[in-house]
Known about the structure:
By secondary structure, the protein is of the alpha+beta class. The protein has a domain of 72 residues: Ubiquitin-like (UB roll) (Roll). It is built from 2 helices and 5 strands. A 5-stranded mixed beta sheet has the order 2-1-5-3-4, with helices on one face. Strand 3 and strand 4 form a beta hairpin. The termini are far apart. The relative contact order is 0.19. The mean pLDDT is 85.
Amino acid sequence: MEGYQPPTAADADENGNELPHAQPDPKPDHMSLTFRDQANYEVQFRLKATTKLGKAMDHFSAKSERDRQTLRFLFEGQRVLPESTMESFGLEDVDVVDVHLEQLGGGNMCLA
């Protein structure tokens, strides 16, 4: 048979019974995600890959005592939306989301 390799002594216990092959670690149920603001205030979350990030955003705004509507959440320069999940946005375990205060204006220049 092609690809078959007979078991060796390292693949058997002391009675000669074949040991089960190590399975790759399954994807973790929960992943770690950190939200960090401009003052380096951090809140770390353990989330399922399918949990909507809006829950974590609401919790961060409550912990930081800021209105949720005044905060912008960015990962690698892209805005993270509340309906996104870690899975849908491509976030991985131990990633960090940057939190910024919304800024209005500043784009108008007056030339004299």
